[in-house]
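Contributing new records

If you add data, match the layout below exactly. Sequence lines come first and carry their own label; structure lines follow with theirs. Keep one chain per record. Anything else will be rejected by the validation script.
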Amino acid sequence: MIDAAALTTLRRAAHETGRNELESWNILALDVKPHHPEVLRSDGEARVIAIQLPAGEELQEHQVHERAYLLVADGEIEIADGGSSETGGAGYMACFDPNERRKVRARSDSRLVLLLAPWPGEGHPSRVA
């Protein structure tokens, strides 16, 4: 049986060589280490990133140039955006506008999927000529 990391590598190679093949991931089976997010896919339409956020830790307050969709695959998080906060567990999904500031804190060990679209967004440093 092939492990999740090897399968991701094979799928990336297929994508880069132009093979038209379904790409899929078992988010919970990926070997994503804390502080080492894994880019699952990155192209002109979007960037998809798997994140392992340990209990009590935060994705520091940040903003991105793209619209951001954050899905909790496992665990529970709290999102704060200034004066209010909201919590969500597995299956919870939040959407942030480009340049919107927010803090994401893990209430328990959490596996997250972050989708940024379009990639790179208007104003992203990689788009500056």
